[in-house]
C-alpha cells in the first residue's frame, strides 16, 4: 500500500467540495447559499478559537493514527455525546410556540392578579402541546390525551397553567399517578406497545380503578385524536382559587376555547396519518404560524363560590369531575394568540419547565389531592431533567419581570449577583431584597382542621354519573366512535378476563354502549360492576360534544387538490381563490411533485406526490383532472385510495366532470350531496361554503 491512495479533502480542496459549497447558514429560514458570503462568521471551538479545518481529524501522517491532542475533534465529539437530556417521564413528545395573552375583561373584583386589573393588558406566553404516553419520537396522532401547558410571563412572576385537552383526569389522588403511567406506557418486560393504551396493562389497571371511567369515555372519544392543536380546547382541570385584594376567595376553573372551533380526525384517518406524516400536528402548528394564520383561544373561567360548590352532586376537589357549562357558564376574560414559532426546538420547547406550583398573587391552589401532588412532582422532575436547581436561569424559564432572591450557586448558575449580602435579614446598606407584605403572595386564609388519615372523601365516590352524562351528550356519530374505539382497544387486550372486566363497567354508564362493545368483542355481557355509589342521570350538555361545537366555515382548514396534466386552469384558479377567500390553505397533490401543466399551458407546482399525500391529510378534497388524467389515475392504487378514503371518511369532495372515472375505479359509484360537481368556476365558491361543515356525516350514519 502506498501512503496516499485515499482521497481526503484538505482545507484547500474544500472549495471544490460539493457539501461545503452548499452551506446553509444558521438562523435563516433555510434558504440555500451557494457559497459562504463575506459576512459569514468564522467557525470556532466553544472556547472561541478559530477553526482552520472541520473536515479532517489530526493524524500522524495521512493514514496514521488520530492524535489525542486534537482538541477541536475531542470537543466536537464530547459535546455531541452529551446532546441528549432525559425526555419527560410523561408528555415527552411535544411542540411549543410563543405568543401572548391579552386580557379582554378586567376582573379586579375576583382576583388581585396584576394581569387582570386592566382590560387590554398583554403578557408574553409560551405554550407547549404534547401527547402523554409516547416517547419523544412517537407519532402525533396516537390516541391519547393532549397536554396544553401555558406559561404566562406576568409582571408578578411566571404563572403556569399546566392543563390538558380533556377537562377531567383518570385518578383522584396523585399517589396513583406512577401506577397509572406505568400501566399506560410500554410494558416493562417487552418495551411495547408504544404511545397507545391498547394493551392489557392499561385496561387491567383502569378496570380495577372505576374512578377512571369518566376519563376513559373522553379518551375513547374523538377528543383523543384531534385534527390539530389549533382546533382543540384546553382545560386547567383542577379547581383553583381566585383571591381578590380584600383577601376574599372564589373557586375557578380555567378553559381555553379555540376560535376556529373544535375538530378531530377519525381513527381510520389517524392510522393513515401516523404513517404518512408522523409530525402532522407539529407541522400544522409551524405552518399555520409561519403563514400568519395565528391560532387563537379564548381564556374562559368558571367562577363560583362555596355555596355553589356545596350544592353540586360531586366534589369540586375531585379531578375526575367537571362542571358542565350549562350549570356554570364560562366567562371569557382573555385571548391567547400564538404568533411566533421557536428559534430553536431544544432551547425552548425541550427546555421549557412547567411547574403547577408557579402561580402569582391573586391565584391559589385548592385541596384537590391531585393538584397538591403535582406541585411536588413538577419541580422535582425539572431538576432531574434539566440537571439541577438552576433551570430557572434558562431563558425560556426565566421570569420577564424583575426578580431578586438569595438563592445562589449550584450547577450551571448563570446569575451571580455582586455584593456581600446573601442572607436575610441583614443590616448592610443596599442589603438586598426584602419581602413585600402588601404586594407579595398570600395564601387564601382558609380554615383547616381534621384528623391526619389516609382516606378518600365520601363525596368522591360516584364514578359513573358524569361518564354517562358525557356519553349521552354526544351525537350518534360520536357515540359510535366511542364504541368502536373501545372495541378496537379491547381487541388488542390478550386476556379475556380483562376485556370482560372493562365491559362490566359499561352498563353503569349506558346499556346500549355496553351491548355494542360486548357484541364488537364477541363477548357474553358480563355482570355489571357494583358501583360504590349508584349513578344518576345528570342533565345532558351540548358543550361536551365536538360535532355540536365545530366551525361553520373553512377558515384555518386545508383543502387537498388532486390534479393531473390538462386540468381545467380556470377551475383550479377559482378554487384556489375561494380557498384563500375562506381563510383556508390549499395543498396540490399530483402524480409527480414537479407538478402539472394545466389546460392553458401554465405550470402548477405540487406540494405532494400522490403516494405521500393521502386524502386523510386534508379537511376536504377536490379532484380536478383531464379525461386522460382520470384514466391514468384510475390505474394508480394511491389515487384510488385517495378517492375511496375521502369518501369513506365522509369528506366533502369537489369533482371536475372528468374525475368521475377515478371514483368509479375506486369503487365509489354513487354520488351524494357531499360530492358536488365543479362544472364552472362559479361552483368553487359554493363548494368552499359547503366545506365549512367539515364532513358529510349523512354518508356514514
Ligand atoms: Fe402532569 N406531569 N402529572 N398532568 N403534565 C408532567 O412534568 C404529574 C396531570 C401535564 O409540556 C411531568 O415536566 C403528576 C394532570 C402536562 O412540559 C411530571 C400528576 C394534568 C405536562 C407530571 C399529573 C397534567 C405534564 C413530566 C398526578 C392536566 C407536560 C414532565 C398528580 C391538568 C408539560 C414534566 C410540558 C408533565 C406529573 C397529572 C398535565 C412528571 C404527579 C391532571 C400538560 O411532573
TrEMBL record:
Does Oxidoreductase count among this protein's keywords? yes
What residues does heme bind to?
88, 128, 177, 374, 378, 385
Give the required cofactors.
heme
Q: Which residues form the active site?
A: 91, 164
Cellular component GO terms, alphabetically? Answer: cytosol
Q: Which GO terms describe its molecular function?
A: catalase activity; heme binding; metal ion binding
Give the superkingdom in one word: Bacteria
Task: Return the EC number.
Answer: 1.11.1.6
Q: Which InterPro entries match?
A: Catalase (IPR018028), Catalase_AS (IPR024708), Catalase_clade2 (IPR024712), Catalase_clade2_helical (IPR043156), Catalase_core (IPR011614), Catalase_haem_BS (IPR002226), Catalase_immune_responsive (IPR010582), Catalase_large_C (IPR041399)
Quick one: a GO biological-process term for this protein? response to oxidative stress
Q: Which family does it belong to?
A: Belongs to the catalase family. HPII subfamily.
What is this protein identified as? Catalase
Amino acid at each position: 500500500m502506498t501512503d496516499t491512495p485515499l482521497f481526503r479533502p484538505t482545507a484547500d480542496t474544500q472549495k471544490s467540495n460539493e457539501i461545503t459549497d452548499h452551506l446553509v447558514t444558521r438562523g435563516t429560514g433555510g434558504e440555500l447559499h451557494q457559497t459562504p458570503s463575506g459576512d459569514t462568521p468564522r467557525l470556532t471551538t466553544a472556547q472561541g478559537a478559530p477553526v482552520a479545518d472541520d473536515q479532517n481529524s489530526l493524524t500522524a501522517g495521512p493514514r496514521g493514527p488520530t492524535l489525542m491532542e486534537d482538541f477541536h475533534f475531542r470537543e466536537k465529539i464530547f459535546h455531541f455525546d452529551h446532546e441528549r437530556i432525559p425526555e419527560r417521564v410523561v408528555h415527552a413528545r411535544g411542540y411549543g410556540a410563543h405568543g401572548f395573552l391579552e386580557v379582554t375583561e378586567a376582573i379586579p373584583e375576583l382576583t388581585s392578579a396584576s394581569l387582570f386589573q386592566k382590560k387590554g393588558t398583554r403578557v408574553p406566553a409560551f405554550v407547549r402541546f404534547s401527547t402523554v404516553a409516547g416517547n419523544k419520537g412517537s407519532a402525533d396522532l396516537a390516541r391519547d390525551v393532549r397536554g396544553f401547558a401555558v406559561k404566562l410571563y406576568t409582571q408578578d412572576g411566571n404563572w403556569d397553567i399546566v392543563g390538558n385537552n380533556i377537562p377531567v383526569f383518570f385518578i383522584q389522588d396523585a399517589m396513583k399517578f406512577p401506577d397509572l403511567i406505568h400501566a399506560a406506557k410500554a410494558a416493562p418486560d417487552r418495551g411495547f406497545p408504544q404511545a397507545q393504551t391498547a394493551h392489557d396493562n392499561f385496561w387491567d389497571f383502569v378496570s380495577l380503578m372505576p374512578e377512571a371511567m369518566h376519563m376513559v369515555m373522553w379518551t375513547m372519544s374523538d377528543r383523543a385524536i384531534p385534527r390539530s392543536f389549533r382546533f382543540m380546547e384546553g382545560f386547567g382541570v383542577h379547581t383553583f382559587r381566585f383571591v381578590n385584594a380584600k383577601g376574599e376567595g372564589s373557586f375557578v376553573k380555567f378553559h381555553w376555547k379555540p376560535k376556529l372551533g373544535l375538530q378531530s380526525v377519525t381513527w381510520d384517518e389517524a392510522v393513515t396519518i401516523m404513517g404518512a406524516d408522523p409530525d402532522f400536528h407539529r407541522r400544522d402548528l409551524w405552518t399555520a404560524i409561519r403563514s400568519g394564520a395565528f391560532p387563537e383561544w379564548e381564556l374562559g373561567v368558571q367562577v363560583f363560590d362555596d355555596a355553589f360548590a356545596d350544592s353540586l352532586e360531586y366534589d369540586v376537589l375531585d379531578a375526575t369531575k367537571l362542571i358542565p357549562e350549562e350549570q356554570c357558564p364560562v366567562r371569557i376574560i382573555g385571548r391567547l394568540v400564538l404568533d411566533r414559532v421557536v428559534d430553536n426546538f431544544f432551547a425552548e420547547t425541550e427546555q421549557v419547565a412547567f411547574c403547577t406550583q408557579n402561580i402569582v398573587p391573586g391565584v391559589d391552589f385548592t385541596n384537590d389531592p391531585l393538584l397538591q401532588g403535582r406541585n411536588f412532582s413538577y419541580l422535582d422532575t425539572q431538576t432531574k431533567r434539566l440537571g439541577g436547581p438552576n433551570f430557572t436561569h434558562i431563558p425560556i424559564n426565566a421570569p420577564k419581570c424583575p426578580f431578586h432572591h438569595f438563592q445562589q450557586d449550584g450547577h450551571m448558575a448563570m446569575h451571580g449577583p455582586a455584593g456581600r449580602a446573601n442572607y436575610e435579614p441583614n443590616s448592610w446598606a443596599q442589603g438586598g431584597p426584602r419581602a413585600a407584605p402588601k404586594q407579595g403572595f398570600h395564601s387564601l386564609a382558609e380554615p383547616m382542621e381534621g384528623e391526619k388519615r389516609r382516606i378518600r372523601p365520601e363525596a368522591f365516590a360516584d364514578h359513573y354519573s358524569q361518564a354517562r352524562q358525557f356519553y349521552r351528550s354526544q351525537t350518534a356519530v360520536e357515540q359510535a366512535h366511542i364504541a368502536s374505539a373501545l372495541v378496537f382497544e379491547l381487541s388488542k387486550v390478550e386476556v379475556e378476563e380483562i376485556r370482560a372486566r372493562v365491559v362490566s363497567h359499561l352498563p353503569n354508564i349506558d346499556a346500549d354502549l355496553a351491548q355494542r362493545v360486548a357484541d364488537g368483542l364477541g363477548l357474553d355481557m358480563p355482570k355489571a360492576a357494583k358501583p360504590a355509589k349508584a349513578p344518576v342521570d345528570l342533565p345532558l350538555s351540548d358543550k361536551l360534544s365536538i360535532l355540536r361545537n365545530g366551525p361553520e366555515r373553512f377558515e384555518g382548514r386545508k383543502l387537498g387538490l388532486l390534479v393531473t396534466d390538462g386540468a381545467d386552469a380556470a377551475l383550479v384558479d377559482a378554487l384556489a381563490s375561494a380557498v384563500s377567500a375562506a381563510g383556508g390553505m390549499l395543498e396540490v397533490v399530483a402524480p409527480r411533485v414537479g407538478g402539472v401543466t394545466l389546460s392553458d399551458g401554465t405550470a402548477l407546482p405540487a406540494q405532494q406526490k400522490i403516494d405521500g399525500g393521502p386524502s386523510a391529510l386534508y379537511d376536504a378534497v377536490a379532484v380536478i383532472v383531464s379525461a386522460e388524467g382520470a384514466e391514468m389515475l384510475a390505474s394508480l392504487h394511491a389515487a384510488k385510495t385517495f378517492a375511496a378514503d375521502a369518501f369513506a371518511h365522509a369528506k366533502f369532495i369537489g369533482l371536475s366532470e372528468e374525475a368521475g372515472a377515478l371514483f368509479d375505479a375506486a369503487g365509489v359509484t354513487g354520488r351524494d350531496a357531499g360530492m358536488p360537481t365543479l362544472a364552472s368556476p362559479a361552483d368553487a365558491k359554493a363548494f368552499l361554503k359547503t366545506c365549512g361543515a367539515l364532513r358529510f356525516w349523512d354518508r356514514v350514519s
